[in-house]
From TrEMBL:
InterPro entries given in the database record: Bact_HTH_transcr_reg (IPR050679), Tscrpt_reg_HTH_GntR (IPR000524), WH-like_DNA-bd_sf (IPR036388), WH_DNA-bd_sf (IPR036390)
Domain of life: Bacteria
Secretion signal span: none
One Pfam family in the UniProt entry: GntR
UniProt feature, compositional bias: Basic and acidic residues: 85-94
Region annotation (Disordered) ranges: 80-100
PANTHER family tied to this protein: GNTR-FAMILY TRANSCRIPTIONAL REGULATOR, MANNOSYL-D-GLYCERATE TRANSPORT/METABOLISM SYSTEM REPRESSOR MNGR-RELATED
Protein's UniProt name: Winged helix-turn-helix domain-containing protein
Residue span, HTH gntR-type domain: 16-84
Keyword annotations from UniProtKB, A to Z: DNA-binding, Transcription, Transcription regulation
UniProt entry tagged with the keyword Translocase: no
Length: 100
């Protein structure tokens, strides 16, 4: 079983900026518990294809939840839903890259 979550079809039409709509979509999935702590998001290029938008739009969209500390990007590992500390749910523990 994979840690990856498949995002549903995304319609980029609407009154909001597309990158904001994508960022809100990711945030809603985290809030709903569909992205459990440490779960890996799809690669940005894959998400761009799924959403039918440019890769740079998804890159910009990823900045919003990253700034809100809803996701963490670890070089070589990808973008993840952060792990929360059990003793203090407001404290975020950044995932560490696996050795090797």
């Amino acid at each position: 079983m994979s840690d990856r979550i498949r995002f549903p079809d995304f319609d980029p039409q609407g009154p909001r900026l597309v990158y904001v709509a994508i960022a809100d979509h990711v945030a809603a999935r985290i809030a709903a518990g569909e992205l459990r702590p440490g779960a890996r998001l799809p690669p940005e290029r894959d998400l761009a294809i799924e959403c039918g938008v440019a890769y740079l739009t998804v890159r910009r969209a990823a900045q919003v939840p990253r700034e809100r500390q809803l996701i963490v990007t670890v070089h070589g590992k990808g973008t993840l839903s952060p792990i929360r500390c059990r003793s203090d749910p407001n404290k975020q523990v950044e995932p560490r890259p696996s050795p090797g």
